[in-house]
Amino acid sequence: MRSIVCSQPGHLKMEEINPPQPEKGFSLVAVKRVGICGTDLHAFEGTQPFFSYPRILGHEIAAEFIEGDAAHFSKGDLLTIIPYLHCGQCRACLVGKTNCCSTLRVAGVHVDGAMVDVFKIPSHLLVKGDGLSLDQLALVEPLSIGSHAVDRSEIHEGQVALVIGAGPIGLGVIQFLLLKKVKVYVIDANPNRIDFCYSLFPDVHFIHAGENTVTILQEHTSGNMPHVVFDATGNLKAIQQGFQYLSHAGKYVLVGLQQGDICFSHPEFH
Fold it and tell me: Is the bond preceding 22 in cis, omega lying within 30 degrees of 0?
């Protein structure tokens, strides 16, 4: 069976490995699409936290069911997966926050991922295709990050949100905010990303990074600033600047991930 292995930073190679074998509690799926996201790029660059080499990458997938004990699945069914393997027994899992599991293992990060012909995954992590195409199914996982971030913010209709970063994850955050009928502002340093984002979301207000962002936001919010700020950059400087964009009693949702320490003015934030 073919696999794509990131053997060390900057190096990918094709390897033949033994195919996975059926096992109780698991299912085998034929991988048809694999998305390449920031996590994979950072692993390739050598800047991904919680990562060890060698590793088979890949966690945004579309696949066909082969065999296993997953309920209500038949051979050939299209599906995607939840790539977050949790224990089900720690304090976080017991209160329903399985994404905060104390021994969380992410496919393609802590354990080998789906850049293989056949992938073995716990059966309870399969998600039915429900009529979506293979290309669409490969986007379910990254879109779910935007959905989760907006849910965590508890933002509601009529409020103001700021999204820092108009990359793929930021686009997902923006989409789910607009479904909440929220007024959205977006900051990005890349004019091509801003133009692309504007072509999708013409009702969103865009601010080029480097402009007098605080003043612009104050003017547009009558001095109140956004109710919720979302960072979707994973950039340390951008994350630290994000604190100054918050309204009083606001919320800051950190979607992006970076390796350094976050620093901010405690008295001002307090």
Answer: no
145-179 b/e (C-beta count within 10 Å ≥ 16 → b): bbebbbeebebeeebbbbbbbbbbbbbbbbbbbbe
Half-sphere exposure of 255 (CA within 13 A, CB side): 32
- What is the per-residue pLDDT across 23-73, written as a single tens digit (0 to 9) for each? 999 999 999 999 998 889 989 998 888 788 999 999 999 999 999 999 999
Tell me what pLDDT residue 264 has.
86
Other CB atoms within a 10 A radius of the CB of residue 76 amount to 9
Q: Is the separation of the CB atoms in 120 and 25 below 8 Å?
A: no
Pairing of β 78-81 and β 60-68: antiparallel
Report in angstroms the alpha-carbon separations of 13 from 7, 67, 141.
7, 28, 25
Residues 3 and 56: beta-carbon distance below 8 Å: yes
Residue 239 · residue 260 · CB < 8 Å: no
Judge contact between 233 and 165, C-beta under 8 A: yes
Select from 202, 195, 160 the least CA-distant residue to 177.
160
pLDDT per residue as tens digits for the range 65-94 = 999 999 999 999 999 999 999 999 999 999
Let me know the angle formed at the C-alpha of 193 by 190 and 196, rounded to the nearest 5 degrees: 150
Closest CA to 19 of 120, 99, 91: 120
